């Protein structure tokens, strides 16, 4: 488990960033057009895959997404580091845009997308998979995930494609981070090496766990970015 008293609360940083962008887009409406995700523009303006997750169509849209993110963040920070949370959030945002792009290729229907829903649902799915595999209580989290995925199919003008894409990527990354946690834990236990380990043994085990987690997180990051990039380019080529 991760100490929730981390110096920087990445959830608050994300919420503040979305709030600032919303105010900026209200003062300069052209900002939305420049940074929303539109499949036809994704190849020449790739930043849209991520920036769309910081834009919102109105105060209710913003408030609902940020409320969900705040509640979810309280759980996420108990089990994950700021880096892991940010990794899942940003790559799930990318995955949400990718889901919209894939649907466009299938149907030929272009649609502009804004909102943090894909990223938030990706984080929800990632934390669900991570905590479920660690045998933590996550039934309520699973219920929230299912409800929010279903909303996309019921409420008009909600991108279920973005929700599904974000949730899928978040779940995959959550699973990969779970593997990192399992491997680092096993390596740490091996370093103890005796029934009653002394202080030095415990320090070595802790160092081994931390080093393995850092290397594992970096590998998950690189592999995830490479695979998402390959999938994205494959849609355009």
From TrEMBL:
One GO cellular component term noted in the UniProt record for this chain: membrane
Residue ranges crossing the lipid bilayer per the database entry: 9-29, 49-73, 85-106, 112-131, 138-158, 164-183, 214-234
Presence of keyword Membrane: yes
One Pfam family named in its UniProt record: Rhomboid
Alphabetized UniProt keyword annotations: Hydrolase, Membrane, Protease, Transmembrane, Transmembrane helix
Membrane topology annotation: Multi-pass membrane protein
GO molecular function, one term: serine-type endopeptidase activity
Compartments, as annotated in UniProt: Membrane
Annotated Peptidase S54 rhomboid domain residues: 45-178
One GO BP: proteolysis
PANTHER family: PRESENILIN-ASSOCIATED RHOMBOID-LIKE PROTEIN, MITOCHONDRIAL, RHOMBOID PROTEASE
Record-stated family: Belongs to the peptidase S54 family.
Descriptive protein name: Peptidase, S54 family
Lineage: Bacteria, Bacillati, Actinomycetota, Actinomycetes, Actinomycetales
């Amino acid at each position: 488990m991760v100490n929730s008293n981390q110096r920087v609360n990445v959830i608050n940083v994300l919420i503040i960033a979305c709030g600032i962008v919303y105010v900026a887009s209200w003062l300069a409406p052209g900002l939305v057009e420049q940074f929303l995700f539109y499949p036809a523009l994704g190849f020449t303006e790739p930043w849209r895959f991520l920036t769309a997750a910081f834009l919102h169509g109105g105060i209710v849209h913003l408030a609902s997404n940020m409320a969900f993110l705040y509640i979810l963040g309280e759980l996420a920070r108990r089990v994950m580091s700021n880096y892991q949370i940010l990794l899942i959030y940003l790559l799930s945002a990318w995955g949400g845009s990718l889901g919209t792009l894939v649907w466009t290729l299938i149907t030929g229907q272009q649609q502009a997308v804004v909102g943090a829903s894909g990223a938030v649902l990706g984080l929800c799915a990632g934390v669900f998979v991570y905590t479920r595999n660690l045998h933590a209580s996550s039934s309520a989290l699973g219920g929230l995930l299912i409800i929010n995925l279903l909303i996309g199919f019921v409420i008009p003008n909600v991108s279920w494609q973005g929700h599904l894409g974000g949730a899928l990527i978040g779940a995959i990354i959550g699973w990969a981070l779970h593997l990192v946690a399992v491997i680092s834990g096993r390596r740490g236990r091996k370093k103890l090496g005796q029934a009653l380990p002394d202080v030095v043994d415990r320090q070595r085990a802790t160092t081994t766990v931390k080093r393995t987690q850092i290397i594992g997180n970096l590998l998950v990051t690189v592999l995830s970015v490479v695979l998402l990039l390959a999938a994205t380019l494959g849609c355009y080529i």
